[in-house]
Amino acid sequence: xxxxxxxxxxxxxxxxxxxxPYDEVAGLLTEAHYxxxxxxxxxxxxDTAFQPPNAPALIQPTTPGPGYDRARALDLIRDNxxxxxxxxxxxxxxLLADPAALAGLRDLREEGWLDWQILMALVNIxxxxxxxxxxxxxxxPDYPARFLQTxxxxxxxxxxxDAFAPANLRAQMDLTVLSIGQRxxxxxxxxxxxxxxxxxxxxxxxxxxxxxxxxxxDLLNDPPxxxxxxxxxxx
Length: 235
What we know:
By secondary structure, this protein is mostly helical. The protein is built from 10 helices and no strands.
């Protein structure tokens, strides 16, 4: 039998036998040793209740993020409720009258999405659909700004409700998170494949994304005001 070049057999064990002959390693431990191991109960080193401590410097901050101004954020949300419903003045009633579409919207709300976030996702889908209806040479240079200022009643072709299916809505919710972070607070992701869930967690923790809202008419239950706004009528 070839002698292990690294001296004691224990050394061979520490090196995981990577340079020791098989015969040298196979006889290292006796059968009695394995019998003892079989009779030994090993308790787990940890359990699900154990939470490793976090270094203070690595704990995610919850202070307002750079560029966040709550008063300004609420003003923008108020603008969403005041201006965006006109873009969906024909499509939104159709969505609310469609059981499948309404169920998808209610699922989003139950998941914690706010009305203005759902409204923005719906408008973004409508924006893409209207763009597809235009020929390349007829797209105005100020699109989508002009789209957002055009009442839906000015369009003759209705939008397909299939485009607002739950899967499409969820995908659009992720895109909306990234878009709002970039446009309102100049935030962007450093990776080629963004993580919308992590991005939303950041916005929730430091930019009020999951809580900032203003009084408004219920998107899914109350029809828009006569002036196509979801803000409550002035008193």
